[in-house]
Specification:
homotetramer; 377 residues; alpha/beta; Rossmann fold; Dihydrodipicolinate Reductase, domain 2; 9-stranded mixed sheet; 5-stranded parallel sheet; globular
Chain lengths: 377, 377, 377, 377
């Protein structure tokens, strides 16, 4: 199997997201880093790219140069990853799709709903893959839940309750730390703080597992630290197209929670729960029966759960390999195989529509609003 | 220490609540069951009372007879417990308060807000104790949290997130079981199902730990099983007088959750969480520090946590002894000691006001409404 | 149902064990404290007994006086509990059995194997009940495991692994604290420290659940704090009559463990585990299947598990109610019902034989020795 | 940073261990698979190697051919990994060390103590790295424990209790399955079954964390399934050079345990515990204080724990990345940096000595025996 050529934007030296993507792309031997524009400081970025094995010609100063250099390159890139600051995702993603590249974009895919609609249109027109990095959906046991729902194993889904709450922004004395502050500043973060940052992962996962989409929502936002304009705590109630009731809590001031992303899915004939801090188990309860601990790697799991696990039962696989699973699916899709689980531009668009809907609802004291992108109504 | 005379309404043979109260009253040797009207079937009730050691003269056919027989009894009852069906709590409680008895009433104290206001007035006029059985608040580690908040150990409380959700009514094929059905039938349960049944425990605890009261709320109710009129799933957002943000989820269709009552309290300088299924621990995290596991019985706990624990660290104490702690405090209060933690008629009234407010909000699509009883506005 | 008359030795004001027994005896309304010699300080003991409702005539200065006063009392005691210091258990228990009383003796029942043999003989001759307070065996879910084994639900038991380890004696700077020191001083504690104190609970439970007895053992003892003569850490391997392999670790220097008593039982067709700090669940795994969480109070549990639980599923019941379950069974047995689960003098004797065997093995570098009392070989 | 050339033996298509090593070597971009002899079926192995990107010339039929082809190769291999069946480890490792290659050998490094001594001698003479894949020791939080012990944070280590027990060989009806049977057959597995397979990981970790070595041990082995010659359950008590007491239980018939490798380390001033199924936390308790949950990625961890973690706090990292950490350290060592944590040939030798000592002890009913290799006595 030939390795695929991969290019990257952002993820320069010292960034957190860069290593996660590089590990994700390389871990299973699918991709080779062939080109990159890794840093806002052009020279630093070029040097760093070369230190990672990129040849000098393909170590670029910025995305525009890279587009120029790569669009007609004989050893064409099979995939580019966009991991630059949020506000730049749209233009880079759009430009490379239009130039005929497959793209994996970090979330949020865009800053507005219109931009999201535009990406969806461009992706469709290009015939290329535009994936968005909702990587939690690539954990084997999340795929297991999705396939159990699809297979009717818990009946119609009545209720989904999901939380993505941490406490790492709970220290008011640290609130002016630039690494924290920008998230609550509309000039940098856009219309939403915590919900746009973490909540949309949870909302995506609700849809992903349920195999259904959010239709309407009602939001209650709070800024519990005075200096913040945007919310650091959000509660969103929602309804899905099929009637499923949803409850989503996302906070960054929940001191003591590390990375409390969890989801509970309750159907007519069973319930399931999963938590990102112990991602290799699902607690499944058939109605009237006992809770069973399902383990990644156990025999009889769904084909997706089995395919995306690398080591035997009870050898935990963690977050970086969930990211790697996105790349596994991308490699397969690029090679022409069907991959149903990949989060795509439509998902990125729906997230953005939900963010704007939640903001709209919150300023109207929780009024129920349509959560769908205009084009999906 | 002389034992106190105790009388009981309801809790007849085969009931669940009867044994919990008898154990609670007797466990620490404070009370002796001296009188009772235990069953709607008068003869069965009288026989059962006698089997429990009540003399024949004080085994009554109904509460009216008991009132008549006891009001001038020379060996007067020190406390009566009302554990009859919900719709009868008001009249029995009122009558016995007016006759000068101390009362412990099961929740809900009343069926309407007006009745609640009436009980508060009557209790005040009588000078007697009217307690309501919010027994979870009497767990040692819940008292610990309350005293930590009062002592400023987590700073101002920003956020409370609490859940009281189970899955025991999640089986649609069992929904017509009379033991389940009445809870969702307005003719029997009143205006609210799951929120009135379980949610108010969580709401009381939020106030109890925060040392603050709920001012306003917004509710989203759902009846996930078609035949139900009242809600089996409720989400309530609230704000306390001091600005604390609150989130409360209560469900009876959360298949796989047994009795998932838990609470998380997040302040400026720390967070805490407690769960009723593992009630002897509190997970406490100072801001910027590690999560610490606090154990019931460890040295250095607050005086209330220490006083209400009976056995050494890591010997678990459970639900029946939380009920017993209510009786411990009642005995002390009857003997003239000050007991701050006892849930009283005002708490029962506030719960009823919150139930009506939540219903009012839910039918108006989550409009924010005042959650306070009229007399407390 | 008439209450039974109960007397107590030891458990004076401020003791830990006294409240646990009083709660245990009173919680379910079976016993009334009618007589007692509660304190080594005769006057304090008499005053305290009266404060607990004992009439002056039956509040005694010591056990000899109580024997004299009670042996021909018209309102005879149905049960006496021996909760005095360990070295006195033998003589009090023997004297009262000989006088025709039913006895519940705290563990260890005796200080030597010969004394244990003597108690077994005396109990048999008297026709009275001589129970020993292995109270952990009375948790509902422990009874559940015992009945599952008896019913063949996990096949022949291959292996039992049990731990009873805590860290409360791990502070060398506190080792001279009299409350700690005596446990490691042969003059006060006898031949064994931690194994005799905690280990025998675990060994009893292994036999209790397996329905089998320990035949031989090999021990490794360590005194990890220099000033100690007796062991503060013990590992005991054993074999049961039916061939089951056993492993038992008991430590008092395991800093961070609170009260880590747990047991794992592995059979041909399934495994189970239970822990005393979360006593209302059993984790059960059928061979080839998933682990299931069994909950106290769920439908379909064994009759013993159901009978000894008081409140609904997921309302935890703790240590004091396990003690109370011993009294529930004693009351039933006194009233002439059959109760298979009560730990009796034979169990107390077996424990003492195992303690001496372990000491004998430990001083011979882990030589395998017979663990049975002479009369049971 | 130039990538290092890496070669592999074993790990052919469909093997479990191959993907773990390839991911481990590639994940952080340190190594490129440049040569290999991957399968006992020469043609299959060569084809598979090429599918993984190895050029045809360096895809070999067997290790002898590879030695021939690589020993004078201009683009010399920086590291070879030996992941063939256990009985071949010795000869391949020895041959490649002698030819001047760095080697990572799967455990067990050899089948006898003499072979182990030989490898240690050869490695020393060669000046090359001979590492052994005790990969659990490369988890960030295991390194954290090691550095805390080294830094005196829990004082002198008194006691280590470790378990590596699972239930995957607990089904007697599956005991003749060839994938299971060979492990209990001396002709294939050597002198020990479960202890040699899993127990030595735990024993290595005890030494690794304590910074001390095992001096003597006493073992109790059991074959709980009749058809087995070698043990499927082992208890090993040990003493370290510095006096630390050790207890190690390893079982493969513990039905319900998935991969229960855990370790508890108790010192004079604190205790710690870690479990491989939740590897990103350490529970640490200072003497007299509360248990604290230490999280991978939290600020203030030791330099090793920080260096070997890739993503932020509470993003779990799992088993494949522990393997990858071995490769991270190998890459560094190959590049001339000092890496203290790498498990080396001496560790492999000590394990083999401990296996033979345990077997020797077990057949002598638990006699205490020297556990050290002859050359280390």
């Amino acid at each position: 199997m030939t390795r695929l050529n991969w290019g990257m934007f952002g993820g320069g030296e010292g960034s957190q997201i860069g290593p996660a993507h590089r590990l994700g792309a390389q871990a299973d031997g699918n991709f080779v880093l062939a080109a990159g524009a890794l840093d806002v400081d052009a020279e630093k970025g070029k040097a760093y790219a070369q230190s990672l094995g990129v040849i000098a010609d393909r170590a670029y100063a910025n995305w525009q140069d890279m587009l120029e250099g790569e669009k007609n390159h004989p050893d064409r890139l099979d995939l580019i990853t966009v991991a630059t600051p949020n506000s730049t995702h749209f233009e880079i993603t759009k430009a490379f799709l239009e130039a005929g590249f497959n793209v994996l974009c970090e979330k949020p895919m865009t800053m507005t709903v219109d931009q999201g609609e535009e990406i969806v249109r461009v992706a469709k027109a290009s015939g290329k893959i535009c994936a968005v990095n909702y990587c939690y959906s690539a954990y084997p046991m999340v795929r297991q839940m999705r396939q159990m729902v699809a297979g009717g194993e818990i009946g119609k889904v009545r209720l989904i309750v999901t939380n993505f709450s941490h406490g790492h922004h709970g220290d008011a004395t640290d609130a002016d730390n630039p690494r924290v502050r920008w998230r609550y500043d509309p000039a940098m973060a856009g219309v939403s703080g915590q919900f746009a940052d973490c909540g949309i992962h949870a909302l995506h996962m609700a849809s992903f597992i349920a195999g259904d989409e959010v239709r309407s929502l009602s939001a209650d936002f709070a800024s519990t630290i005075d200096s913040r304009v945007l919310e650091d705590d959000a509660m969103v109630n929602f309804r899905m197209e099929g009637g499923t009731v949803g409850r989503l809590w996302s906070s960054s001031v929940a001191i003591g929670r590390q990375h409390g992303f969890d989801i509970q899915v309750f159907g007519e004939t069973g319930g399931m729960r999963w938590a990102s801090e112990q991602p290799n188990q699902v607690f499944y309860t058939p109605v009237g029966g006992r809770t069973q601990i399902m383990e990644k790697g156990e025999s009889g799991l769904s084909d997706e759960a089995t395919r995306l696990s690398r080591v035997a039962i009870a050898h935990p696989e963690g977050f970086p390999l969930a990211v790697a699973n996105i790349y596994v699916d991308l490699a397969a899709a690029i090679r022409g195989e069907q991959r149903d689980g990949l989060p795509l531009a439509e998902d990125g668009l729906r997230s953005m529509a939900a963010v704007y809907a939640a903001v709209d609802s919150a300023v109207q004291d929780g009024k129920w609003v349509d959560a769908r992108p205009p084009s999906f109504r």
